[in-house]
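Risk register update: the risk of archive-format incompatibility is retired. Evidence:
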Amino acid sequence: MTITREALAQAAANGQALSHLTAGQAWAAHKLCVPPERLQKPLASHIAALLDNVERKARREFFGGVEHNDTDAMISRAYDQQQPPFLRLPILETLKEGMDTFFPGLKPAGYDDSGEAVYALADLAHALEVSEAELLQHAEQRGLTDRIQRQTVHRIH
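Archived output:
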Protein backbone atom coordinates (compact mmCIF):
# COMPACT_ATOMS: atom_id res chain seq x y z
CA MET A 1 0.00 0.00 0.00
CA THR A 2 1.24 3.46 -0.87
CA ILE A 3 0.98 5.90 2.01
CA THR A 4 -0.42 9.33 1.14
CA ARG A 5 -0.73 12.49 3.23
CA GLU A 6 -4.51 12.10 3.24
CA ALA A 7 -4.39 8.47 4.36
CA LEU A 8 -1.84 9.36 7.04
CA ALA A 9 -4.00 12.25 8.32
CA GLN A 10 -7.07 10.02 8.45
CA ALA A 11 -5.22 7.21 10.26
CA ALA A 12 -3.80 9.70 12.78
CA ALA A 13 -7.22 11.27 13.41
CA ASN A 14 -8.90 7.88 13.84
CA GLY A 15 -6.14 6.31 15.95
CA GLN A 16 -5.61 3.58 13.38
CA ALA A 17 -2.65 1.71 11.95
CA LEU A 18 -1.77 2.36 8.33
CA SER A 19 -0.10 -0.24 6.16
CA HIS A 20 3.05 -1.27 8.10
CA LEU A 21 2.83 1.66 10.56
CA THR A 22 1.31 1.18 13.99
CA ALA A 23 -1.39 3.62 15.09
CA GLY A 24 1.21 5.41 17.23
CA GLN A 25 3.70 5.62 14.37
CA ALA A 26 1.03 6.95 12.01
CA TRP A 27 0.07 9.62 14.55
CA ALA A 28 3.73 10.56 15.15
CA ALA A 29 4.48 10.74 11.43
CA HIS A 30 1.47 12.98 10.86
CA LYS A 31 2.34 15.18 13.85
CA LEU A 32 5.92 15.58 12.57
CA CYS A 33 4.78 16.11 8.94
CA VAL A 34 7.04 13.30 7.74
CA PRO A 35 6.82 13.11 3.94
CA PRO A 36 4.94 9.96 2.85
CA GLU A 37 7.83 8.83 0.67
CA ARG A 38 9.94 8.51 3.87
CA LEU A 39 7.35 6.14 5.34
CA GLN A 40 7.42 3.44 2.70
CA LYS A 41 8.34 -0.09 3.70
CA PRO A 42 10.95 -0.84 4.91
CA LEU A 43 11.19 2.11 7.28
CA ALA A 44 14.68 3.56 7.56
CA SER A 45 16.04 2.86 11.03
CA HIS A 46 16.38 6.56 11.88
CA ILE A 47 12.75 7.22 10.86
CA ALA A 48 11.55 4.23 12.90
CA ALA A 49 13.53 5.44 15.91
CA LEU A 50 12.17 8.98 15.56
CA LEU A 51 8.55 7.79 15.33
CA ASP A 52 9.00 5.39 18.24
CA ASN A 53 10.50 8.14 20.42
CA VAL A 54 7.65 10.55 19.66
CA GLU A 55 5.11 7.81 20.37
CA ARG A 56 6.84 6.91 23.67
CA LYS A 57 6.85 10.57 24.70
CA ALA A 58 3.12 10.84 23.96
CA ARG A 59 2.46 7.70 26.04
CA ARG A 60 4.51 9.05 28.97
CA GLU A 61 2.60 12.34 28.88
CA PHE A 62 -0.77 10.60 28.54
CA PHE A 63 -0.27 8.03 31.31
CA GLY A 64 2.23 9.96 33.44
CA GLY A 65 1.09 11.15 36.81
CA VAL A 66 -2.01 8.95 36.84
CA GLU A 67 -2.26 6.81 39.94
CA HIS A 68 -2.92 3.09 39.44
CA ASN A 69 -6.64 3.20 40.32
CA ASP A 70 -7.41 6.77 39.25
CA THR A 71 -10.13 5.98 36.73
CA ASP A 72 -11.45 9.55 36.78
CA ALA A 73 -8.11 10.89 35.51
CA MET A 74 -7.93 8.27 32.75
CA ILE A 75 -11.51 8.90 31.65
CA SER A 76 -10.87 12.62 31.68
CA ARG A 77 -7.79 12.18 29.48
CA ALA A 78 -9.71 9.89 27.14
CA TYR A 79 -12.28 12.63 26.56
CA ASP A 80 -9.62 15.31 26.11
CA GLN A 81 -9.56 16.06 22.38
CA GLN A 82 -6.01 17.40 22.72
CA GLN A 83 -4.72 13.92 23.54
CA PRO A 84 -3.52 11.61 20.74
CA PRO A 85 -6.39 9.60 19.24
CA PHE A 86 -4.34 6.37 19.21
CA LEU A 87 -4.25 6.55 23.01
CA ARG A 88 -7.67 7.92 23.88
CA LEU A 89 -9.96 6.20 21.36
CA PRO A 90 -9.33 2.63 22.61
CA ILE A 91 -10.26 3.78 26.12
CA LEU A 92 -13.45 5.41 24.83
CA GLU A 93 -14.31 2.21 22.95
CA THR A 94 -13.80 0.17 26.14
CA LEU A 95 -16.06 2.57 28.04
CA LYS A 96 -18.73 2.21 25.35
CA GLU A 97 -18.49 -1.59 25.47
CA GLY A 98 -18.84 -1.48 29.26
CA MET A 99 -21.91 0.73 29.04
CA ASP A 100 -23.45 -1.58 26.42
CA THR A 101 -22.69 -4.66 28.54
CA PHE A 102 -23.71 -3.45 31.98
CA PHE A 103 -26.45 -0.99 31.02
CA PRO A 104 -27.91 -2.39 27.78
CA GLY A 105 -31.15 -0.44 28.14
CA LEU A 106 -29.46 2.90 28.78
CA LYS A 107 -29.44 4.96 25.63
CA PRO A 108 -28.20 8.50 25.10
CA ALA A 109 -30.87 11.18 25.27
CA GLY A 110 -28.95 13.12 22.66
CA TYR A 111 -25.55 14.43 21.66
CA ASP A 112 -23.68 17.60 22.53
CA ASP A 113 -22.10 19.99 20.04
CA SER A 114 -18.91 17.89 19.90
CA GLY A 115 -20.83 14.70 19.09
CA GLU A 116 -20.46 13.09 22.51
CA ALA A 117 -23.39 11.09 23.86
CA VAL A 118 -25.42 12.85 26.56
CA TYR A 119 -27.52 10.91 29.05
CA ALA A 120 -30.54 12.17 30.97
CA LEU A 121 -29.94 12.24 34.72
CA ALA A 122 -33.27 10.46 35.30
CA ASP A 123 -32.23 7.63 32.94
CA LEU A 124 -28.87 7.25 34.71
CA ALA A 125 -30.55 7.18 38.11
CA HIS A 126 -33.01 4.54 36.94
CA ALA A 127 -30.23 2.35 35.44
CA LEU A 128 -28.20 2.59 38.66
CA GLU A 129 -31.31 2.14 40.83
CA VAL A 130 -30.67 5.32 42.83
CA SER A 131 -32.39 8.68 43.06
CA GLU A 132 -31.36 11.69 41.02
CA ALA A 133 -30.55 13.45 44.31
CA GLU A 134 -28.13 10.64 45.22
CA LEU A 135 -26.41 10.96 41.85
CA LEU A 136 -26.06 14.71 42.24
CA GLN A 137 -24.72 14.28 45.78
CA HIS A 138 -22.20 11.68 44.61
CA ALA A 139 -21.11 13.93 41.75
CA GLU A 140 -20.64 16.81 44.17
CA GLN A 141 -18.57 14.68 46.58
CA ARG A 142 -16.29 13.60 43.75
CA GLY A 143 -15.98 17.07 42.25
CA LEU A 144 -17.86 16.10 39.11
CA THR A 145 -20.66 18.64 39.18
CA ASP A 146 -19.04 20.51 36.30
CA ARG A 147 -19.51 17.37 34.17
CA ILE A 148 -23.24 17.44 34.82
CA GLN A 149 -23.90 20.39 32.61
CA ARG A 150 -27.00 22.00 31.31
CA GLN A 151 -25.66 22.56 27.83
CA THR A 152 -27.08 22.41 24.35
CA VAL A 153 -28.26 18.88 23.68
CA HIS A 154 -29.36 17.68 20.28
CA ARG A 155 -32.17 15.27 21.17
CA ILE A 156 -32.38 11.92 19.42
CA HIS A 157 -36.09 11.36 19.96
